[in-house]
């Protein structure tokens, strides 16, 4: 006996095949959309993070208020740099800053003295600091535009010699966020009969 397939059965088979292809296309599109959404979210998150880091590298810096040298005979033995937070800066911890001292006798990388107290002096390749103004007792963290802290450099301890008249020095202060402040000064040509000089 022969079995005949009617037109209706053929159309039904074609319809089922089309439905399967359509469902497969919808699934592929849904998976692709999910991947795109996840990728877009990841890229947005990374771009925000990168933007914040870039902003901190520009704004989280210290700003020089005054640089003073202590005169000993005809040389400068201590350099005190008073700083405040830069415009738009967040919290800056002086203990987490690194300092590059470029002077007549060479270049030195200085870090905060770990055993700091207000009476100690720098020893070795370190700097110390002192509080000038800190209304909320947050030192050594600069967290207010009115804060003033002072870097103290004992030149003879790390540079093996005091600064003579006419010496040129560059101090680069690098914060934890990566922002750098450069301070340049020249020791005056005449230090006689002076106890301190503005640099």
Order of helices and strands: HEEEEEEEEHEEEE
- First CA to last CA: what distance? 114 Å
Tell me the CATH superfamily of the largest domain. Answer: Immunoglobulins
Give the overall average pLDDT: 83
Calculate Rg over CA atoms: 33 Å
Helix count equals: 2
CATH architecture verdict of the largest domain? Sandwich
- The number of distinct structural domains comes to 2
Largest sheet: 10 strands, mixed
Protein name: Flagellin
Subcellular location: Archaeal flagellum
Family: Belongs to the archaeal flagellin family.
GO molecular function, one term: structural molecule activity
Description:
The protein has 199 residues and is of the alpha+beta class. The chain has 2 domains: 1-59; 62-198, Immunoglobulins (Immunoglobulin-like, Sandwich), CATH 2.60.40. Helices cover 29% and strands 37% of the residues. The strands form 2 sheets. Strands 1, 2, 4, 5, 6, 8, 9, 10, 11 and 12 form a 10-stranded mixed beta sheet that branches. Strand 4 and strand 5 form a beta hairpin. The termini are far apart. The model is unreliable at 115-123 (pLDDT under 50).
């Amino acid at each position: 006996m022969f079995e005949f397939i009617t037109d209706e059965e053929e159309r039904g088979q074609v319809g089922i095949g089309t439905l399967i292809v359509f469902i497969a296309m919808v699934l592929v599109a849904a998976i692709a959309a999910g991947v795109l959404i996840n990728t877009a979210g990841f890229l947005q998150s990374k771009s925000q993070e990168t933007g914040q880091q870039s902003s901190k590298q520009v704004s989280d810096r210290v700003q020089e208020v005054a640089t003073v040298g202590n005169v000993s005979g005809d040389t400068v033995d201590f350099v005190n740099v008073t700083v405040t937070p830069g415009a738009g800066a967040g919290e800056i911890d002086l203990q987490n800053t690194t300092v590059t001292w470029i002077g007549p006798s060479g270049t030195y990388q200085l870090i905060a003295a770990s055993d700091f107290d207000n009476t100690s002096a720098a020893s070795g390749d370190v700097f110390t600091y002192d509080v000038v103004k800190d209304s909320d007792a947050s030192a050594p963290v600069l967290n207010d535009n009115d804060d003033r802290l002072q870097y103290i450099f004992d030149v003879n301890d790390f540079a093996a010699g005091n600064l003579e008249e006419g010496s040129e020095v560059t101090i680069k202060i690098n914060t934890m966020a990566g922002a750098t402040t450069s301070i340049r000064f020249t020791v005056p040509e005449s230090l006689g009969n002076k106890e301190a000089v503005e640099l």
